[in-house]
Amino acid sequence: MPGLIAASTSVPDKRIALRAALSSTSITRLPGAINPLTAKLIQEIGFEGVYVSGGAFSAGLGLPDIGLTTLTEVITHSAQIAAVTDLPVLIDADTGFGEPMSAARTVLAAEDAGIAGLHLEDQINPKRCGHLDGKAIVPTNEMVRRLRAAVTARRDPNFVICARTDAAGTDGIDAAVERAKAYADAGADLIFTEALVEEGDFAKFRAAVNTPLLANMTEFGKSELISAHTLEDIGYNAVIYPVTTLRLAMGAIETGLREIHDRGTQKGLLDRMQTRSRLYELLDYERFNEFDTGIFNFSLGEQ
User: Rounded to an integer, what distance in angstroms lies between the CA atom of residue 73 and that of residue 225?
Assistant: First the structure.
C-alpha cells in the first residue's frame, strides 16, 4: 500500500531530506501545490519539494490573502497534500494565527499533519499579501517571541522553521538584514525575505546573512523573476513558486469556460486538456486495480 494511496517515504525521512537539501550547494525548488494531485505531478516531474501557499489557498476558497483562513483550514489542506507525496512539504503559516502561543500550536499541528516545515512572518496580525503596498510589521522583539515560541514547541528537531521578513519593503534591505540576523539568533533555520526587487538585492542579502535563504519567485509582484540556476549561483538554498500553478490553472479554466459559453461546446479545447489516460497514469489507476484484484480474489463457490 505505501506509494499507492499514501507516500512511500516516512515523515521523519522527508524532514531529514529537507534539512539535507538546505545544507547542500544545490538549490531546492518548491513549486506551489494547489491540491494533492498537483503535488503528485510536482514529484513526478522531478522537483525537490512542494510548497503550500497561503495566498493560493485563500484564493481557492474565494478569499483575499488578508489572514482570513484559520489554522485548522490550512493544516487540513496541507496534510492532504503532504500525505500523497514523497517530497518534503513546506507551508505558509502566515503570522502563526495569533499570539506567540498560537505560533507554538501551529508548529505542533503541522508536525502532527506530516509537514516538513513552515514559515512565519513578521507582519502584524492579520497580515496581507507581501507584494502589496501598505504592509505593517511588528517590532523585531515581538517577532522574536513568535519564533522562540515556535522553536520551543518543536518536537522533531528536523522540522524546519523559516522566518519571513517583510521589512525590505517597509524599512529597506539593511533593516531586513538586521531582522534576519535576530530571527536566526532566535532559532530560525531558514530566512525568507519578501519582495526583494532586483538580482542585486538578492545578492546583497546573501552576502550579509549566513543563515540558509529562501527566495520567492512569484509572478506579477515586486520581484524580478530570476532563474533557479542564477539564485543557486548567488547562494540561495531554496526557491518557491507559490501561486504559479493556480495562475496557470485559472488562466486555462477561464479561457475554456468562455469558449464553452460562446460556442456551446468544448470540442475546440480538447488539445489543451489533460487526457483521461494521462490523469489515470498520474493517479496510478492501474495499480489500484491490481491491488483490488489481489485482495478481492475470492469466489462464493457453490451455494
Answer: 30
185: phi then psi, degrees, rounded to nearest 5: -65, -30
Is the whole model's pTM more than 0.85, yes or no? Answer: yes
Q: DSSP label at 185?
A: H
CB atoms within 10 A of CB 269: 15
121 assigned to active site: yes
Active site residue 92: yes
Q: Which of 48, 86, 92, 232 is catalytic?
A: 92
Query: How would DSSP label each residue in 35-50?
Result: SHHHHHHHHHHT-S-E
Whether 201 sits among the annotated catalytic residues: the reply is no
| Amino acid in position 83 | A
Cβ(243)–Cβ(219) below 8 Å: yes
The answer to whether residue 286 is catalytic is no
Residue that the C-alpha cell 524532514 belongs to: 15
Confidence of residue 303 (pLDDT cuts 50, 70, 90): very low
Tens-place pLDDT, residues 147-158:
999 999 999 999
164 among known catalytic residues: yes
Q: What is the mean pLDDT of residues 103-128?
A: 92
Measure the CA–CA gap between 194 and 175, rounded to whole angstroms: 13
Q: Compute the average pLDDT of residues 106-113.
A: 98
Residue 290, C-alpha cell as written in the block: 491490481
Residue 216: HSE in the Cβ half-sphere, 13 Å Cα cutoff: 29
